[in-house]
Amino acid sequence: MKTNKTARLVQDKIRHQIELGILKPGSRIIETDIATEFKVSRSPVRAACDLLVEEGILTKIPYRGLIVNLPKITEKEFVDRLDVFELLMIQYFFYLERQLIELPVSTIDEQFEVLKEVKQSGDITDIIKRELLFFQVIVSSHKNIYYQKLLTTLLDELLNSDPLFYRQDSDRLSLVYFNYFTDIWESLKRKDYPKARRDVRLFINDAKLNVLDQQEIMAKYRN
């Protein structure tokens, strides 16, 4: 019973660290490190991790061990985030155009070159990190800090989410829609704001179509 109680305490602590973002989606859980940090033996840590796997918070992957799962969201939640993101981005591009804002082109180009290199590695965690850094530099020209935070938080949720209807990592936004980031940035560099707005709409529409396609596939599978 003592071990069971300790396992539950460790389970709660690991879950809390995930909720706080200390343990990020895609990161590896090393039982010995957890045992050392919480000053317990490996046995309750192993039991706690098994419980978290049952909850769907962790996943056991062959040759990699325990991995923190991506947050799950429904189709509607995913589409709602896409709609808000599209609206805010289009408003932001209007803001850049009307206020004659100069973007930090050299800084954004540097981030984009790093992003292209990282994309070749296929490391999904690093790709997401670099996409967010790239995007944060783009929206940093808005004077409203809250607006910047809202945009980056939305994109973070979209890139890091694992919608319930997705079944393959290759369907992740961070990989499938990388070319849209390229198109949007090229349009912004040329100060072609109408095209940048069209690029955003294409990006969002494609994402929504992907949702519908996955829904049809899952409906056929269930039938």
UniProtKB/TrEMBL annotation:
Listed SMART domains: HTH_GNTR (SM00345)
Alphabetical list of InterPro entries matching this protein: Tscrpt_reg_HTH_GntR, WH-like_DNA-bd_sf, WH_DNA-bd_sf
Statement: the UniProt record of this protein carries the keyword Transcription regulation: yes
Keywords: DNA-binding, Transcription, Transcription regulation
Xref: PROSITE patterns: HTH_GNTR
Record domain HTH gntR-type: where: 4-71
Highest taxon above the source species: Bacteria
Gene Ontology molecular function: any one: DNA binding
The keyword Transcription appears for this protein: yes
Name assigned to this protein: HTH gntR-type domain-containing protein
Taxonomic source organism: Vagococcus fessus
